[in-house]
Design goal:
CATH topology of chain A: Cytochrome C Oxidase, Chain A
Structural class of chain B: alpha+beta
Strand order of the largest sheet of chain A: 1-2
Distance between the termini of chain B: 77 Å
Oligomer: heterodimer
Largest interface: A-B, 74 and 61 residues
Strand order of the largest sheet of chain B: 2-3-6-12-11-8-9
Radius of gyration of chain A: 25 Å
Helix content of chain A: 55-70%
Strand content of chain B: 35-45%
Largest sheet of chain B: 7 strands, mixed
Number of strands of chain A: 4
Amino acid sequence: MQTTAKQDFIGHDAAAESGGINLLARPTAKTGLVGWLTTVDHKKIGIMYGLAAIFFLLVGGLEALLIRIQLAFPNSTFLSAEAYNQVFTMHGTTMIFLAVMPLGAAFFNYMVPLQIGARDVAFPRLNSFSLWTFLAGAILINTSWFLPGAHAPNIGWFGYANLTSTQYSPGLGTDFWILGLQILGVASVAAALNFIVTIINMRAPGMTMMRLPVFTWMTLFTSFLIILAFPAITIALAELMFDRMFGTNFFEVDAGGQPILWQHLFWIFGHPEVYILILPAMGIISEVLPTFSRKPLFGYPIIVFSGAVIGLLGFAVWSHHMFTTGMGKIATAAFALATMAIAVPTGVKIFNWIGTLWGGKIITRTPMLYALGFIWMFMIGGFTGIMHAAAPANAQQQDSYFVVAHFHYVLIGGSLFALFSGLYYWLPKMSGRIASEGIGKLGFWSTFAGFNIAFFPMHFLGLNGMPRRIYTYDANMDWNLWNLVSTIGALILGVGVAIVTLHLLYTALRGRRCGGDPWDGRTLEWSLPSPPPEHNFDHLPKVRSRDYFWYQKHHPEMKEPVTEQDREEAAHGIHMPDQSWYPLVASIGLMIGAYGLIYLAQPWGIFAAIGGGVVLFAGVYLWSVEGPGGYHVHPGEEADRHHH
Amino acid sequence: MSLHVPERDWYKAPAGAEKLWIGVALLWCFVMSLMMPYWHFRGKQNADSETYAVEPAAFMERTERFVADNRVGEIDGVPVVEPPPGGEAYLLARMWSWYPILKLRQGETYRIHMSSTDLQHGFSLQPLNINYQVIPGYDHVITMTAATAGEFIIVCNEFCGIGHDRMIGKIIVE
């Protein structure tokens, strides 16, 4: 049992005063543009991640609708081949990197410090840097749509070499894609390091690892996956960038390069990436199901260890994306075995969720509906995943619409439904307002129906041989009916997503007010007012068991008395980090530099590249010497504005 | 506001049928996984395929020689080539066509070499729906018995740029 608060080692001492150089005064505005641009509050950063992610979800959804309208009828001319290639490439890139990942990051930011009983993340300014760098990458990659001389990337979201060489993709779209992903990688790795340190070092007294909420556990595993997987794509993208900009030959066949190297590097990143997308979803489900089943999570340690096993095995299955490249029988069988094996911990989790439901008092509020929908649709996606794992069957499914159906079941039916569940579950915490059930359920049923109508027929299309990424098809291929059905489903899904996003926005601004704990929750975030104050916890919570907050609510004798130490700490005040301009400055520098590299052929390109680099390094340098700063908050009183 | 407080002993450890159910499910997961190596060794499920390194120019030359030696006709300007029964055949993918049209005899087994001279393509045989990736620099050899007579369409299933959807070839089995 820990008795001292780890966070409280920054006191009113003189050491913190050696502030150092400050070109830009540390802003103090809590609201308004400056307040949001310079914030280091994990809750505000989480909200901005969430808003950006929802915006890009709508952009990616619009691109999906364009794809489906084009494919509704054979020999359609709604989009040109070139436009179609741009739209499907940007759809995949947007949904994965700009919608689902940041929506997960929004919850990491907002919920993890609250769940572990911390007052912020370990590195608040780094957190701000992650957010702005993510936005820089997102804006960069999307400006390719309309900047002069550019076009949107048209190489597919996994950009197989050597289609991406300057010979076959001479335009700037591929450069936007390379540098956009590279910047997004920086944002992800910085955020992942931050969360690892936060979860390991900033837990409240008594919050041992095996008492962590499962969402926090999954955040930890996801963060490890990010720092281990992203270097692979960083290398691949750097090699591709060198090939395109400086004439190297990593992927140039005529010079002895190996296009297949790209596939290996991409998928040793890309397969852990799909677990990066699904593990946070599994964490959310593991929070929602117990709350609305009125039971503790069934098999907590097994769910946690299964997450770890998924994370580990996730690095041993990448070549199942390459079964048809002719790897040889032994490699094929080995990767098939590893892929089958990864279904085991996934199945274990599903059984544990069903075990959680079993015998519970199930309450079908909106978050719970999404969670139940998740289990069913994620299982369908999982089953087709096992079908892909069988290499001979894979030889029939490779690059067909069967695969498209599979990964949309896992990513929409799985990740996105879990994220919607999380949005409905935690929106009351973030906004202090609770969503109405009627429209919530309407949104659920329309997304659920639309999704299944849109994607289930793709299984049939795939088994009938329809390949991915064709912009149109002939009427005699027997694909007409299911393509039309799929498009109708996609339109219904689009209406559903519109209902959900409008409903969530309306609720956040005008919804019915609720208290701190509308769902009778189990984890520490529900012990706080909604929305939580800037410093989160007046007194750091003490934790003596899993779901301790829930036990305390229902067993008054378990209330923790306010101790002498608590009173001392309260009198001392709560140390809060100062806001800073430099994370934003560094991100902007990164973005300018990337534009310079993309437009290297222009006379100003080299100056922008070097100038952006200078701004980046100046930002990071000044950030590192501006000193820790900070001020003290005394709960119940005005913030103590005496800076060190 | 709160939902409902559970009234009495709401938590039970798994026991009896629950434990059995969990155990059986777990065991079945492992059985399913182990079927992969089992099918590999006992069922010979994994397709025969070999790959060799080849320069795109060298593969082009071999294909041209193969076409010149075995040419039997022409359809829409694309040569129709009938390889010797049981022999080697070459199929070349390039933006955005398959070259040449192969004419095979029913019941004979062929070694079909596939490669690309520009960028990555995908061989997908319709309506059988069997797929292989065709990668420049790789000579991908499929040993295949032409079991069914008829005309088979080859579509490209690996995204290869603006002409991807029109990249269609043909294999005739007589």
